[in-house]
């Protein structure tokens, strides 16, 4: 079987380039709709009854890429399916591990992604897995998102908590701190909506699961809270994916 055909409207490419260079603002949902309308075959969506019509909520989706498929198509598909604009948390750097051009690629990606986040009014987060030199920047990004939540208590948030790519698109474990971060959002009153995205039978597929309240047993130590929350989040995402992509998360019991 082949893969879906992914392409971009020429007018959108010109508009995005102009906004990145000159500082214009754009709607990510509008741009996503323009791209997904060109998708062939059309996007397949399951769990339509679980698509949030309003916030507050945080959507968590798996993260992967392959040659010819960039992870941003997951975000485009999700944004085009939602009935309202979502606020995304995105990486502020691509790391290119093991590539000879990694240094230049990291610098160029920081320039580009900083402007893309400003263009769409997204929150930027240092790349995963966490690096010691990013500790202060990561803490600042978390605080920035929590400030956004306080100012927009009915927002729809979206993120890919893995923050990186696993071989073959199989679900990976969350990096340290990701579960604790999602617990902060849950404590601010944001239910979690799990979403799975994958390619099958030449089509790009999305499946929305039911919203749930992320909780861990009271009194658990910080590290245990982080682990249990991460397992719960990844189990819920795994339930939206085909068995071949679930990894070990199909055997976990949510901590919620």
* Biggest sheet: strand arrangement: 1-7-6-2-5-3-4
Q: How many individual β-strands?
A: 7
Distance between the termini: 38 Å
Strand content: 5-15%
Q: Let me know the largest β-sheet.
A: 7 strands, mixed
Note the overall shape: globular
Flag low-confidence runs. 252-256
Topology diagram in text:
Layout: H1 10-22, H2 28-36, E1 44-46, E2 57-61, H3 72-81, E3 87-91, H4 102-120, E4 123-125, H5 135-151, E5 156-159, H6 178-187, E6 192-200, E7 203-208, H7 222-238
Parallel strand pairs: 1-7, 2-5, 2-6, 3-4, 3-5
Antiparallel strand pairs: 6-7
Which features characterize this protein?
alpha/beta; 256 residues; seven-stranded mixed β-sheet
Question: In brief, what are we looking at here?
Answer:
Helices cover 37% and strands 14% of the residues. With 256 residues, it is of the alpha/beta class. Helix 2 (28-36) packs across helix 3 and helix 6 packs across helix 7 (222-238).
